[in-house]
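Would you be willing to look carefully at the protein I have copied below?

:::
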Amino acid sequence: MALRMWASSTANALKLSCASKSSLSPAFSVSRCFSTVLEGLKYANSHEWVKHEGSVATIGITDHAQDHLGEVVFVELPDEKSSVNKDKPFGAVESVKATSEIISPISGEVIEINTKLGDSPGLINSSPYEDGWMIKVKPSSPSELESLMGPKEYTKFCEEEDASH
C-alpha cells in the first residue's frame, strides 16, 4: 500500500500520466495512476460515490478514498429506516491509518445496509464499487444528484487535490 501511494504521488509530482485500464474492462471510464473512476456514477468532493437506479441510490466510498485510507478494519453504518442528510456524516470508516467520517452525498431514507461489511470491512478496499457499497437510500430530493460530479470532473478534482498535497 505504501508503495502504491508513493508511486501515485511521484507520478502526480512528475506530471506523468498512467495508461487507462479502459481497454481491459469497458465498465471503467477513467483510471489514473491506480485510482479507478466508473462511468455512470456521481461523485462527491468528500470522495463518496452514488449509483442512482430508479427509486434507489447506492452509496459507497471511492477507490481514491479507500486508497488514501489504507486497510479498512471497521465500518460503522446507520440503521435501516434512518435518515441521511446531504453533506452530513452517516457513518465512519476505521483504517489502520485513521478513522474518517462518511458524508452523505444526498438526503433520503436508508432502505438497506451492506451487512457483509460487518464481517468483511476489507471489501471496501478490494471492491469499493461492487461488494464494498455501504448503504442504499430512497432519495428524498433526487435533484441533489445534479450537484455531484461526473467521472471526468471527479478525476480532475482528485488530480488537483493530490497535486496540492
Summary: The longest strand covers residues 89-95. The mean pLDDT is 83. The helical segments are 2-13, 63-69, 116-119, 123-126, 151-163.
